[in-house]
Design a protein that fits this description.
The complex is a heterodimer of chains A (508) and B (428).
Chain A: E1 22-27, H1 32-47, E2 55-61, H2 67-77, H3 79-84, H4 86-93, E3 96-100, H5 106-123, E4 129-133, H6 140-149, E5 159-163, H7 171-184, E6 190-192, H8 200-211, E7 224-232, H9 241-245, H10 248-266, H11 275-287, E8 289-291, E9 301-310, E10 315-316, E11 334-341, E12 351-356, E13 363-370, E14 379-380, E15 390-396, E16 400-408, E17 415-424, H12 425-428, H13 436-445, H14 455-474, E18 481-486, H15 492-499
Parallel strand pairs in A: 1-2, 1-4, 2-3, 4-5, 5-6, 7-12, 9-18, 14-17
Antiparallel strand pairs in A: 7-13, 8-11, 9-10, 9-11, 11-12, 13-15, 15-16, 16-17
Helix pairs in contact in A: 1-13, 6-7, 7-14, 10-11, 10-14, 11-14
Chain B: E1 4-5, E2 11-13, H1 18-26, E3 40-44, H2 48-55, H3 69-81, H4 93-100, E4 115-116, H5 118-121, E5 127-133, E6 142-148, E7 162-169, H6 171-184, E8 191-195, H7 203-209, E9 215-218, H8 225-237, E10 242-244, H9 245-248, H10 251-260, H11 264-267, E11 273-281, H12 286-299, E12 302-309, E13 313-319, E14 325-333, E15 345-352, E16 360-366, H13 372-375, E17 383-389, H14 396-405, H15 413-425
Parallel strand pairs in B: 3-5, 3-8, 5-7, 8-9, 9-10, 11-14, 16-17
Antiparallel strand pairs in B: 1-4, 2-6, 6-7, 11-15, 12-13, 13-14, 15-16
The chains are: A alpha/beta (508), B alpha/beta (428).
Bound molecules: NADP nicotinamide-adenine-dinucleotide phosphate.
Chain lengths: 508, 428
């Protein structure tokens, strides 16, 4: 098949976005994210020649590792990747350093400043620094304060801070955290991570919408009947019970990832393709979004929790039986809701948003269902009404888009049948797309904020779900957590949410 | 933003005192300022055209060495006066030579190396050493030294200072002064050498300055094509980092060509190229050859033969991986409004004949050049893709700034891979 050939002329063109010499400082270097995602992504960038020669990584955490210990730990974690290219690892790892730092201790952070000056001299990294806070969210604010206190954020051109998710627990705490963070540096120094934004198809939503003149005229309430946004995981809570018990699906997935997908799908056309213009539009559309029934949120939202399931040979524990989970837990592992956007473009078009753990498939997608033709002129080959046209934007796996539409079936007579027009990201752009963290790290080090969330976006997203969060905290009985069997598409009540509008969830 | 002057008026010192003076400048308690852990930059800055235009009274001084609009304008106006064809680029070495034949005695201050373009000072070079040869070949060596602190564009001032050293004099004096350059380059920091002139001038100085592991920045659009390609070849093969501004200027052409074949349906056509034509501005072939060599290298072609075509063109035949032949032809074309850089690409045509499909003809045109020659001679029943390549016109200081912004201690592998082929394409 020709479509799977890569484009040999594409190779290397991505290297032209130049990352400047710098030191990437990772707080939480002994943690899970560092060895599972961050260092592998950096090593990928190195092997693609996208890192400059003058580059260093300084790992920081409280435990008293040495540079050598840090390198060894990373080497063990990346063994499989290193086996492909041991020589590259030896060059790359010579730029890995470690400094014991407790972010709570100002003295430690001041000492860190000295170590950074030393690394600047050793590696010619030009006093240019990216600080990555891969620590518990409890330290985001104090971490920024400590960095600012030590003067490490004083130069807005040469220092930036990357903040992992989640950013706040609700509207009030996000506002408070923003206040702290903003007192430490300028908005353009702050990079709030949303993993899904690193996915190129999320960016593809933008390209597809705004570079293709065919979509823009129909991207509104006149043509679109409803929009479904789904992010489904097959996994359960795994080792994250401690965190998940305090978060739940609404905070873990909906407030950030799904809301970003919603914003990119629904936003107005930015005046130009520049980071601030895009973020302005995203913030605006989120400010116009509201739950379908804010006064009685239980009418537009369903919560669920996975129970046991699987097969006799491969049984799956229910959420309440998972290690670390309260046996009476009412934390939701599934949530579905209906949202409206009160603006000219989307007035009256429902957006259905759902996410869950232990679903039958791992996938994220946005499905736009177009209104049906006013009169059915043709027979559908299967009998009955022709299915409505649908545009399916796949975020993962297999990033790309499907367009399901009616065509004339082969043979005589005017019969139509649905056809999928498939377009996959890897096939269409000669090189496979970057893994999420590769792109996010590269962009942060390039100071390109497009794929990070701005303070007003984060706050608008929290504000949108405030009625739900308040309800769950104050009158949880109003929003019961329905059990669902593991490896199914959530509780029946979620189907009810759609059925009331005469719709069905798409079965991917 | 206006170019920044040095902080103090530069101090003229005897050459043998420079090193000591700089040492003293940074000792003391200026701990902060001392810490510019960036890089040093050595610039060969002949500015022959600027010097001649000033001498002829065609350009106001001072001489700065910067590529400024008034310089380009004066050079364009001087081209017809020198009897050169209108396609001559305003920075072409032949213009310098012709200007050199004209009489004139005007003079102006020579501030080369003392005016730092903000595109460069924003990277806060630790030390900037400028070699400024004078028109008068016998002139003795003058050395000037100054500290400078780039003014931050915004935000709080973190004064990270550097210093500049200017060596000015006749060619002979500069050659003798070469020995003092090496000790001035901080060993612990990367060092770039920007040869802002033709590669065939001052070979002894070039050799002396450009030793590995210093990283070279050259512009193969200037001077003898054979010499330029030889330098690229040797240095890339030796593992030294060499950046060619002429190659970087191809980026939008490469992007555009790649984009045509991003469409899955077209990808397969790349295996069936039968013809490649390139038009360049004037008689400087290197950029065109680099483009052809990059395509050939990416598509796995081998060079079978090369030769001269009528009208100072170059022809060649490549063999594709499947054994079929590809015809290549590069022609110099006159252009009304020549780009600053000699030999810039004007147009490119690639013809593919995939099996069981109509031929595909891709034409890329520069914004200003027009590609009438390439559009002529159509084939029946082909798929025609025509794109305009938007060129970003930047001063050479900005181009260098891009290179300094990143930093690799080895040559870009795509350039390294295509340079030997480009060199063999040049008929000798
Ligand atoms: N893991 C994931 O897949 C994932 C996914 C999405 C988001 N995140 C986010 O990424 C961040 C890190 O996650 P993680 O899974 O890597 O967490 P983790 O495994 O618990 O690691 C936390 C790290 O923080 C360090 N640390 C704790 N207190 C510190 C202090 N006072 N000063 C400096 N360092 C301190 C710990 O090392 P010491 O004990 O040695 O100090 C450890 O290295 C969190 O914000 C999380 O929300 C993670």
């Amino acid at each position: 098949m020709t479509a799977t050939l890569t484009n040999p002329l594409r190779v290397g063109l991505r290297q032209e976005r130049v990352i400047s010499p710098q030191c990437l400082v990772i707080f939480g270097a002994s943690g899970d994210l560092t060895h599972r995602k961050l260092i592998p992504a950096l090593f990928d960038l190195f092997r693609q020649r996208r890192l400059p020669s003058e580059f260093a990584v300084l790992g920081c955490a409280r435990r008293p590792w040495s540079d050598e210990e840090f390198r060894q730990k990373m080497e063990v974690a990346l063994a499989a990747k290193i086996a492909d290219d041991p020589e590259a690892w030896s060059t790359f790892s010579s730029g890995l350093f470690y400094e014991p730092v407790d972010l709570q201790k100002q003295d430690d952070v001041v000492r860190l400043g000295k170590r950074l000056e030393q690394i600047d001299r050793q590696r010619a990294t030009r006093s240019n620094r990216t600080f990555y806070l891969s620590v518990s969210p409890a330290f985001y604010g104090s971490g920024c304060r400590a960095l600012a206190g030590a003067g490490l954020l004083a130069d807005p051109k040469r220092s930036r801070v990357v903040i992992e998710k989640p950013f706040g627990r609700d509207y009030a705490s996000a506002q408070e955290l923003n206040r702290v963070v903003k007192s430490c540096g300028q908005e353009n120094q702050i990079f709030r991570i949303d993993h899904y934004l690193g996915k190129e198809t999320v960016q593809n939503i933008l390209v597809m919408r705004f570079a293709n003149t065919i979509f823009e005229p129909i991207w509104n309430r006149n043509y679109i009947d409803n929009v479904q946004i789904t992010a489904a995981e097959t996994v359960g809570v795994e080792e994250r019970a401690g965190y998940y018990e305090t978060s739940g699906a609404l905070r873990d997935m909906v407030q950030n990832h799904l809301t970003q997908m919603l914003a990119l799908t629904a936003m107005e056309t930015p005046g130009r393709y520049d980071p601030e213009a895009i973020r302005n539009e995203k913030a605006k559309v989120l400010q116009a979004a509201r739950l379908a029934d804010e006064a009685e949120p239980w009418n537009c939202c369903v919560r669920g929790q996975y129970g046991p399931g699987g097969t006799t040979s491969d049984p799956l524990a229910g959420y309440r039986q998972e290690p670390g989970v309260d046996p009476n837990s009412t934390t939701e592992t599934y949530v579905a809701m209906k949202v409206f956007i009160d603006n000219w473009r989307w007035q009256g078009v429902p957006f259905y948003v759902r996410t869950g753990k232990r679903m039958p498939k791992r996938l994220s997608e946005v499905v736009l269902t177009f209104k049906e033709a006013p009169v059915h002129l043709f027979d559908s080959s299967g009998g009955g009404n022709p299915g409505a046209n649908q545009l399916i934007l796949r975020i993962q796996p297999n990033e790309g888009a499907d367009f399901r539409f009616e065509v004339k079936a082969p043979g005589s007579g005017m019969r139509s049948r649905p056809v999928d027009m498939d377009f996959s990201y890897d096939e269409s752009f000669g090189e496979p797309s970057d893994e999420g963290y590769v792109r996010l790290l590269a962009d942060a080090m390039l100071s390109d904020p497009t794929l990070f969330t701005r303070s007003d976006e984060v706050e608008a997203a929290w504000r949108l779900y405030t009625p739900l969060i308040e309800l769950i905290e104050q009158q949880p009985w109003q929003l019961p957590v329905y059990p669902y069997e593991a490896r199914t598409w959530g509780p029946a009540a979620a189907d009810g949410l759609m059925a009331r509008d005469g719709l069905l969830w798409r079965r991917p | 933003m206006a170019p920044q002057l040095t902080l103090q008026a530069p101090l003229e010192l005897p050459p043998q005192d420079v090193s000591d003076y700089l040492g003293r400048l940074w000792s003391g308690d200026q701990d902060q300022a001392n810490g510019a852990s960036t890089f040093s930059l050595v610039v060969w800055q002949p500015s022959w055209i600027e010097q001649h235009l000033v001498r002829l009274g065609r350009l106001d001084g001072p001489i700065t060495g910067l590529e400024r609009p008034e310089l380009l304008q004066a050079a364009r106006q001087a081209t017809p006066a020198c009897g050169l064809p209108p396609s001559t680029s305003p920075l072409a070495p032949e213009l310098a030579w012709q200007l050199g034949q004209l009489p004139g005695e005007a003079s102006a201050d020579d501030l080369r190396g003392q005016h730092v373009d903000p595109a460069i000072s924003r990277h806060q070079p630790r030390r900037l050493i400028t070699l400024a040869p004078t028109l008068e070949g016998q002139k003795h060596l003058e050395t000037l030294v100054a500290a400078y602190c780039p003014l931050p564009e915004e935000g709080p001032v973190t004064a990270v200072c550097g210093d500049v050293v200017v060596m000015r004099g006749g060619m002979g004096a500069l050659e003798q002064g070469l020995a003092m350059v090496n000790p001035l380059i901080p060993a612990e920091l990367p060092c770039w050498v920007w040869w802002n002139g033709a590669l065939d001038e001052a070979p002894q100085l070039f050799e002396g300055l450009s030793q590995a592991p210093r990283r070279l920045i050259v512009d193969t659009a200037m001077g003898s094509p054979a010499r330029a390609l030889d330098v690229l070849c040797q240095r890339a093969a030796s593992g030294q980092a060499i950046s060619d501004l002429n190659w970087y200027r191809l980026l939008s052409w490469r992007e555009n060509l790649a984009m045509v074949f991003d469409q899955p349906g077209r990808r397969d056509a790349l295996a069936h190229v039968v013809q490649l034509d390139i038009d360049v501005q004037g008689h400087q072939p290197v950029q065109g050859l680099l483009m052809a060599a990059w395509i050939a290298d990416r598509l796995g072609w081998t060079l079978e033969e090369t030769g001269r075509a009528e009208g100072d063109g170059i022809t060649a035949r490549f063999r594709r991986g499947d054994g079929e032949m590809v015809q290549f032809r590069q022609m110099p074309v006159p252009v009304g409004e020549p780009s600053t850089h000699p030999g810039s690409l004007v147009g490119l045509r690639m013809v593919c004949k995939p099996e069981h499909r109509p031929p595909l003809c891709v034409i890329l045109c520069g914004e200003t050049g027009g590609c009438m020659r390439l559009e002529a001679g159509g084939m029946a029943q082909l798929e025609l893709v025509e794109e305009v390549v938007v060129s970003t016109i930047e001063s050479v200081q900005r181009e260098v700034s891009r290179t300094l912004r990143g930093g690799h201690d080895s040559t870009n592998p795509l350039l390294a891979a295509c340079v030997p082929l480009a060199s063999r394409l040049l008929p000798r």
